[in-house]
Amino acid sequence: MNRMIGRELKTARKEMATRGVKKKNGLLFIISAPSGAGKSTLCRAVRERFADLVYSISYTTRPPRGGEQNGVDYHFIAKGEFEKGIASGRWAEWAEVHDHYYGTSAEFLDGELSVGRDILLDIDIQGTRQILQRYPDGVTIFILPPSLEVLKSRLHFRDTDSPEVIAVRLKNAREEIAQKDFYRHIITNDRLAVAVAELITLIEKYRS
Ligand code: 5GP
After folding, report:
1. For residue 168, which of 122, 100, 102, 103 has the smallest C-alpha distance?
2. pTM to 2 decimals?
3. CATH value of 25-207 in 3.40.50.300, 1.10.220.110, 3.20.20.140, 3.40.630.10
């Protein structure tokens, strides 16, 4: 009898110890920037530096651009499927950006965070606001171009969009930059190498 109680106690202690050392939830890093501010390059550098940081692949209804791969750059889905997802609560956040839907899977985020994995989200400001309502500890980072003039010339130089699309992106950029103080951290991408170092140092600080 006594031996039995002893064994039960041991099991209970073991369980408590396991609970005590259980890894805490992962961290959520949310990066936003107007298009042309160099966010993709910065995010790539972050992903190369932190191999264990999980990148959340967004869902979008926009068509793939040259070289983009389904399931790698985005999950490209039809408008109908996206709208069904809105109705069923599939998205942790979603937004209409440049006339297309973009969204983040709630199931994916909750699953990864609950097993202690840190996640990198590359979303716009509308999405960031929604994410913070759901995950108030999210670390928000805004990438700022040195000026609107520089942004304009980068968008033209990139040569991936028509003049009309560039005009929409510039208008959106102005609106997004006006809301930059909503973010916890702002990094100006004047010189890429400096911005990369700044971003990596920042993420390292949170993860250590
Ligand atoms: P692009 O079409 O150039 O890849 O992305 C356009 C904008 O949509 C970028 O500002 C990007 O951050 C944003 N975006 C990409 N994925 C998501 C997402 O899942 N949710 C939200 N809210 N914005 C996203």
Report:
1. 100
2. 0.86
3. 3.40.50.300
Among protein residues, the one with the nearest Cα to ligand 1's atom 6 is: 97
What are the two backbone dihedrals, phi and then psi, of residue 28, each rounded to the nearest 5 degrees? -115, 120
**Chain-centre distance for alpha carbon 11:** 41
The separation between CA 153 and the C-alpha centre of its own chain, rounded to angstroms, equals 26
pLDDT single digits (tens) 12-42: 445 544 554 455 899 999 999 998 888 889 9
Quick check: CB of 123 below 6 Å from ligand 1?
yes
172 contacts 98 by C-beta, under 8 angstroms? yes
Convert the pLDDT of each residue in 91-148 to its tens digit. 999 999 878 999 999 999 999 999 999 999 999 999 999 999 999 999 999 999 988 8
CB of 35 closer than 6 A to ligand 1? yes
**Element containing residue 193 per DSSP (H, E):** helix 192-207
Cα gap 97→156, rounded to integer Å: 20
Residue to mutate (ligand 1; options 58, 151, 169; most atoms within 8 A of CB) = 58
Q: Extract the tokens encoding 5.
A: 């109680």
Structure-block tokens of residue 161 = 């969009």
